[in-house]
Design a protein that fits this description.
Layout (H helix, E strand, L loop, with lengths): L11 H19 L3 E5 L3 H13 L3 E5 L24 H10 L7 E3 L6 H4 L4 E4 L4 H13 L3 E8 L2 E7 L4 E3 L9 E7 L6 E4 L12 E5 L13 E2 L1 E4 L2 E3 L14 E4 L4 E3 L4 H6 L3 E2 L8 H19 L8 H16 L11 H8 L6 H20 L8 E5 L12 H4 L7 H16 L2 E5 L3 H13 L8 E5 L24 H12 L7 E4 L13 H5 L3 E4 L4 H14 L3 E7 L2 E7 L20 H5 L5 H16 L1 H11 L3 H6 L4 H15 L5 H26 L30 H17 L8 H8 L29 H10 L25 H15 L7 H8 L7 H19 L10 E5 L4 E5 L6 E4 L2 E4 L4 E4 L4 H12 L2 E7 L2 E5 L4 H8 L3 H9 L9 E9 L5 E2 L4 E4 L3
Helix pairs in contact: 2-10, 7-8, 7-9, 8-9, 10-28, 13-14, 13-28, 18-26, 19-21, 21-25, 22-23, 23-26, 26-27
Organism: Rhizophagus irregularis
Family: Belongs to the ubiquitin-activating E1 family.
EC number: 6.2.1.45
């Protein structure tokens, strides 16, 4: 399948999700940027991986040092057999597989100014401070963007220098704010008042321009005007006193203004650092680590190596270096004690996959900012640590953390051999093997998670790989398109770390009630934890419920473009994922969608619903009529909607059934007339453009835009696109061969007779959202439709092909139909049309995604996983995170504590329940709670089945009391309890000893072992 390209450089099929983050302009700038990455241990390769996936012009690698076994702690493109080979030359071909559009090369010889002068961005890792200063002096003087970064155990640093004048095109990446104007005052400080449907969302200093204003025409397409916010619905735009009088209408649109910022050189910044805070709970940490990292460089320069893991002599020497450096500073940094500096020394040789993932995602995003000017760069130092990930026990000593010639030496240096054993014998369930899932698996393989005798990692994902996945799901290659994600991901992981073979197990079952025979009690009982890598809320909530039920820790995360969030759910400590709800998405009122659209989002949604209503739903209804004997009776019970359903069946099976493609073209032409001409004529007949409401205002004002019918023109590309796409989709419904030759289709159209339309009186049109227009169904009309339907037996085997919407296939007409339909309706209502790219984004409900955010977020998740493995049991040990790499912003907080409830003197939370062993009778159950908990059970249910209620009739109640609860459940549900179910979950309504209703936990009744 060929992907559509907007120009020679951007493959929209590959970069689809990323384009919605960065935009075409930024991507084009990236496509002309050459990037040099120095240092190819874990951090360097993580940065390179993300930059290559993003799609720059070229990436050059420099690290001639030989591979060591400890590199394998984080360097996922190296193998044991690569030890002693040069890191750069060994990594290059494996990196090149990620993106065919980005050539990878290796820089030979010494790193000289002459060799680096032609790069637009240079990234230094594992580079001595002296060399960093030398290179930065050159790059700062020559307009080359410079980034240096290092990760030392649980500590890391980034430094940016993008030159004296760096222009930011778009600092936030948020869509420009737009809104409808209600009034503009004519005065020296002109005030714009917006319609009170929604707040304007502007801030002081923003700029806006205007369109569609009547009267004060000078504002239309004016130069951007600076805003001063007066209130949520009003803002000032400066002098309007010389303009015409405002009459009506208008749309304001925010105009993003370029911003120029200045960077200091590294040499200057060392003495006068500017810090971006990574964690506001560690406000003083950046200054302390600024000294600490300089001391590390001094230590290495003095000794030729980093401090030995947990060596007290080396740690004390690092402290002395730090104090000497601090004493020479103009503004000295306060240290409470030597503990932080010693921790830095203890784990400086450490190399942790989660830290590398965090910084690799962060720095790669800074590279893209340098290339494109999109988003605000870090100014200029950024320090981050996760000391709280260290275990609480005191087994961390020099002997336990010494290297042992293992691929995990980088992790052992920080956590010790004992903790490595715990990691290896942990059992985790990963739900989802997409973008987050791939990154998580890579981190876990590097950590050695689940590779021990007791360990295991289960991965489930029922999806297959698509081309658009390759841009950020880095375990997959183009040759893998069409294969199962879970199996392919694990095969890739096995190559990265052979110790995962047989320990990482692929599943293809969707998590849900229907697969609880697969993911049953035995499965969950063997797990130590669950990690979600899901992209839908329902599945997340389901897994959350399962984790609460089985009392397993859950690691949750998600991304949206440059934004990412992480949440940790710990039994008996925190609330669950479902405890907090996001606000519901704002929906479009039906009356707006059907009759009064005022934004392109409205017309796209309308077109998307029309797609379902023309090519999917009627075909499904036809098939149901032909295959289900009770279809008509069931449909008739649906009341007012039944006529529409049965008319659809009659149309698609009888009156509008095409036998040739030419008849599909005729059908499409008549649909064009219906939607873009006749319906609009009827609307204007009901509400002429000069209609005045009962309150004396114009009907067509404010958010209501007066439409105009469209006269069909076969030579208009948009008109013809609707015909071509609609006719081909209709042909697909009937298994007819389609046709895209436009001259042929025009010729067919020239012979189509279109009936003249006359608006009707008495047609009701919904104007207000709360207006309820009842559609009456005449029984005689219904019977007439039913009698016209052919007997299913007369057309055995006949079925229609319902169209399943697929946004990523550029050859299937789906997005093309929605784009043409939406833009035609936009033309009806004078709304600015949208291109195919934007239409696909809105209609397909695409979540913008980029590999940088994904990598960073999984790093944060795995830092929390260390804490779970270590058995930390204080809520303050854990962190939920929110990041926005565009700004950039980092926010961390303690998880929210679990809410607590009480009955009698007993306190309980969502993690508590009543556990009862044995299949009791209902009477025994009632007696148990009365005797042991002083609770009177007034109602008892199991799922949707009501087992007992105080208001049940006497005979029925007494019969049930003698039945075992499992029998009762099967009797009421009218189906057997599946053999995999070991326990019933029962919900109770109870009265306490004071005969008051009181909330209590659920009951887990074990019915079989």
């Amino acid at each position: 399948m060929e992907s559509k390209k907007t120009d020679q450089t951007i493959d929209e099929g590959l970069y689809s999700r990323q384009l919605y983050v960065l935009g075409h302009d930024a991507m084009k700038k990236m496509g002309s940027s050459n990037v040099l990455i120095v240092g190819l241990k874990g951090l360097g390769i993580e940065i390179a991986k993300n930059v290559v996936l993003a799609g720059v012009k070229s990436v050059t690698l420099y690290d001639p040092e030989p591979v060591k076994i400890s590199d394998l702690s984080t360097q996922f493109f190296l193998r044991e057999e690569d030890v002693r080979k040069p890191r750069d030359a060994t990594s290059a071909p494996r990196l090149a597989e990620l993106n065919q559009y980005v050539p990878i090369s290796v820089l030979e010889g010494e790193l000289t100014n002459d060799k680096i002068k032609n790069f637009q961005v240079i990234v230094l890792t594992e580079t001595p401070l002296k060399k960093q200063l030398e290179i930065n002096d050159f790059t700062h003087a020559n307009g080359i963007h410079f980034i240096s970064t290092d990760v030392r155990g649980l500590f890391g640093v980034v430094f940016n220098d993008f030159g004296d004048k760096f222009q930011i095109i778009d600092a936030t990446g948020e869509n420009p704010v737009t809104g409808m104007v209600a009034a503009v005052s004519k005065e020296e400080e002109g005030i714009v008042t917006c319609l009170d449907e929604s707040r304007h969302g502007l801030e002081d200093g923003d700029y806006v321009t205007f369109t569609e204003i009547k009267g004060m025409e000078e504002l239309n397409n004016c130069e951007p005007k600076k805003v001063k916010v007066l209130g949520p619905y009003t803002f000032n735009i400066g002098n309007t006193s010389t303009y015409g009088d405002y009459i009506s209408g208008g749309i304001f649109t925010q105009v993003k203004q370029p911003k120029t910022i200045q960077f200091k050189s590294l040499r200057e910044s060392l003495g006068k650092p500017d810090h971006l805070i990574s964690d506001f709970a560690k406000w003083d940490r950046p200054g302390q680590l600024h000294i600490g990292f300089q001391a590390l460089h001094a230590f290495v320069e003095n000794h030729g190596s980093l401090p030995r893991p947990h060596n007290e002599t080396d740690a004390e020497e690092l402290v002395r270096f730090a104090k000497n450096i601090n004493d020479q500073c103009e503004e000295k940094v306060e240290f409470d004690d030597d503990k932080l500096l010693k921790q830095l020394a203890y784990c400086a040789t450490g190399d942790l996959s989660p830290m590398v993932a965090f910084f690799g995602g962060l720095v790669a995003q800074e590279v893209l900012k340098a290339c494109s000017g999109k988003f605000h760069p870090i100014q200029q130092f950024f320090y981050f640590d996760s000391l709280e990930s260290l275990p609480d026990n005191d087994t961390l000593n020099e002997e336990n953390c010494a290297p042992c010639n293992s691929r995990y030496d980088g992790q052992i240096a920080v956590f010790g051999k004992d903790f490595q054993h715990k990691i290896a014998n942990f059992r985790e369930f990963l739900v989802g093997a997409g973008a987050i899932g791939c990154e998580m698996l890579k981190n876990w393989a590097m950590m050695g998670l689940g590779t021990g005798p007791r360990g295991a990692v289960h991965v489930t994902d029922m999806d297959t790989i698509e081309k658009s996945n390759l841009n950020r799901q880095f375990l997959f290659r183009s040759r893998d398109v069409g294969k199962l994600k879970s199996e392919t991901a694990i095969a890739a992981i096995n190559r990265m770390n052979p110790e995962t073979k047989g320990k990482y197990i692929a599943h293809q079952d969707r998590v849900g009630v229907e697969t609880e025979n697969v993911y049953n009690d035995d499965f969950f009982d063997r797990l130590d934890g669950v990690t979600n890598a899901l992209d839908n809320v329902d599945a997340r909530k389901y897994m959350d419920r399962r984790c609460v039920y089985f009392r397993k820790p859950l690691l949750e995360s998600g991304t949206l473009g440059t934004k990412g969030n992480t949440q940790v759910v710990i039994p008996y400590l925190t609330e669950s994922y479902s405890s907090s709800q996001d606000p519901p998405e704002k929906s479009i009122p039906i009356c707006t969608l059907k009759n009064f659209p005022n934004a392109i989002e409205h017309t796209i949604q309308w077109a998307r619903e029309l797609f379902e209503g023309l090519f999917k739903t009627p075909a499904e209804n036809v098939n149901s009529y032909l295959s289900q004997s009770g279809f008509i009776e069931a449909t008739a019970k649906q009341g007012s909607g039944s006529k529409e359903i049965l008319e659809g069946v009659q149309n698609y099976l009888v009156s509008e059934r095409p036998l040739t493609f030419e008849e599909c073209v005729t059908w499409a032409r008549l649909k064009f007339e219906e939607y873009f001409n006749n319906t609009i004529q009827q609307l204007l007949f009901n509400f002429p453009k000069d209609t005045i409401t009962s309150t004396g205002t114009k009907f067509w004002s404010g958010p209501k835009r007066a439409p105009d019918p469209i006269v069909f023109d076969a030579n208009n590309n948009e008109h013809l696109e609707f015909i071509v796409t609609a006719a081909n989709l209709h042909a697909f419904n009937y298994g007819l061969k389609g046709e895209t030759n436009r001259e042929y289709i025009k010729n067919v159209l020239s012979n189509v007779m279109v009936p003249e339309f006359h608006p009707k009186s008495g047609v009701k049109i919904q104007v207000q959202e709360n207006e309820n227009i009842q559609l009456t169904t005449d029984e005689n009309e219904l019977q007439e439709i039913i009698s016209s339907l052919p007997d299913p037996a007369s057309i055995p085997g006949f079925r229609l092909n319902p169209v399943e919407f697929e946004k990523d296939d550029d050859t299937n007409f789906h997005i093309d139909f929605i784009t043409a339909t939406s833009n035609l309706r936009a033309t009806n209502y004078g709304i600015q049309p949208a291109d195919r790219h934007k239409t696909k984004f809105i209609a397909g409900k695409i979540i913008p995604a980029i590999a940088t955010t994904t990598a960073l977020v999984t790093g944060l998740v795995c830092l929390e996983l260390y804490k779970i493995i270590g058995g930390k049991n204080k809520i303050e040990d854990y962190k939920n995170g929110f990041v926005n790499l565009a700004l950039p912003f980092f926010g961390f907080s303690e998880p929210i504590a679990m809410p607590k409830f009480k009955y009698h003197e007993t306190e309980w939370s969502l993690w508590d329940r009543f556990d009862i062993e044995g299949d009791l009778t209902l009477q025994e159950f009632l007696d148990y709670f009365k005797k042991n908990h002083e609770l009177d059970v007034t109602m008892l249910s199991c799922g949707a089945s009501m087992l007992y209620a105080f208001f049940l009739q006497g005979k029925k109640r007494e019969e049930r009391k003698n039945m075992r609860l499992s029998e009762l459940v099967e009797s009421i549900a009218k189906k057997p309890i599946p053999p995999h179910v070991k326990a019933l979950t029962l919900e109770m309504v109870v009265n306490d000893r004071n005969e008051e209703d009181v909330e209590v936990p659920y009951v887990r009744l074990v019915i079989r072992q």
